[in-house]
Amino acid sequence: xxxxxxxxxxxxxxxxxxxxxxxxxxxxxxxxxxxxxxxxxxxxxxxxxxxxxxxxxxxxxxxxxxxxxxxxxxxxxxxxxxxxxxxxxxxxxxxxxxxxxxxxxxxxxxxxxxxxxxxxxxxxxxxxxxxxxxxxxxxxxxxxxxxxxxxxxxxxxxxxxxxxxxxxxxxxxxxxxxxxxxxxxxxxxxxxxxxxxxxxxxxxxxxxxxxxxxxxxxxxxxxxxxxxxxxxxxxxxxxxxxxxxxxxxxxxxxxxxxxxxxxxxxxxxxxxxxxxxxxxxxxxxxxxxxxxxxxxxxxxxxxxxxxxxxxxxxxxxxxxxxxxxxxxxxxxxxxxxxxxxxxxxxxxxxxxxxxxxxxxxxxxxxxxxxxxxxxxxxxxxxxxxxxxxxxxxxxxxxxxxxxxxxxxxxxxxxxxxxxxxxxxxxxxxxxxxxxxxxxxxxxxxxxxxxxxxxxxxxxxxxxxxxxxxxxxxxxxxxxxxxxxxxxxxxxxxxxxxxxxxxxxxxxxxxxxxxxxxxxxxxxxxxxxxxxxxxxxxxxxxxxxxxxxxxxxxxxxxxxxxxxxxxxxxx
Length: 570
Known about the structure:
single chain, alpha/beta, Serine Threonine Protein Phosphatase 5, Tetratricopeptide repeat, Rossmann fold, 3 domains, 7-stranded mixed sheet, 5-stranded parallel sheet, 19 helices, BamD-like, TPR-like_helical_dom_sf, Leu-bd, ABC transporter substrate-binding protein
């Protein structure tokens, strides 16, 4: 039993105890006996008997009557007698309009109406619910049923009637984006997107209802069950909807929206493969308390895969939760190996800092004549971490590190002499101006060996082609998109058609991540490491994944300019 269900059970039981104590003292009346018998019958799945016993209590009235109405309607629902459920709830509300558990009744009536496709009636009930504790269940129920509607005009009419219903608005946005090219529809989608923010859920067939008997403590019917081929994905990124400005194109968290957009594109592709992906977006920033509140929400446990969070303390909480509940956890952009240490269910989509250093040294070792190297790094913390890891791996391979220091700005000084010139230089930098400066510094110092550097160290639009051909220049580039591959071309064309701009690397990362883990989870392949690897011919946009040895992505792309374009050389 979940905490939310327990709270609801306690609320009803306490109410009954008060009623029994005040109205009936020590004497057990025939009405009370019938009520208890009806409740026990509901618990054991004897729905006809439950309805018969509770019917008597309903007719007699009194303090037990509203509860009898509710459980009578619940028994009808379990028998899939949805019209009877709706009728009983209407009678309950008519006779006891101030009943303190009426929100539970509204929810039950809405579920029954949804089952019959009476979406207008169902939404009229859900919009009466004021209990915030029920909202996650209401939202989930609405998502599951509204996804059945394929008629845009019908959804538009409902949205006009219930303009404040966020879930309804998001369902309409999703349907428009997937099936309409009408200018008015697209403008409506933009207006709703600006008003309500991120679209968290995909369009997918609703899973079948649970049919086995439920305990009476479950005062609302369970309407969702896991279906083979369906994967629920929780995307926990800092969307910061409270500060969302649709006109701000320079927001610092644009990467979160790009990652989600890539996942949505992959979801659509997987659907053509018979794999249904349900995406649920959660706005998770650097707030442990809000993260705990989310983890304590019963609806959150439906997820099969969690992507994120990105901040350390929320990530620790979610990592513990995922481990306890056997949920696969993937960090989309972090390169910290600590996130997967002693976490068999946690994966890094990008190769860790250590893995990048190991892969780079393994490749460079065969490219140089002597085992002397100089290692430099820029001002960012991740630059120094990668440089330290690279230097450590060099030493483990028997290299001599002749220089190791931070460099930045114009006029970089390497401090090398004729006696300690390295056979190659490694430079980790996140500044696009630093790469050209390092090449100049190497020329001034008379270093003729290769420069091994990071992909963000250059500006590929401003730097001339000669920059990349004057000496051997190798780049460590997990973010590399090879436009010579058909899969990458197709992806880029699809994104440009939809958004009229080039996709960022974050869109590609979200796309590849969702494509790979969606397939693995749908096939149940995560337990077999031999399957956890892609090939260069697969349809991924970046360089793919390799988890055959650990949960750290072993693929570390190294690229080189061949005179016409950059190509992967390892």
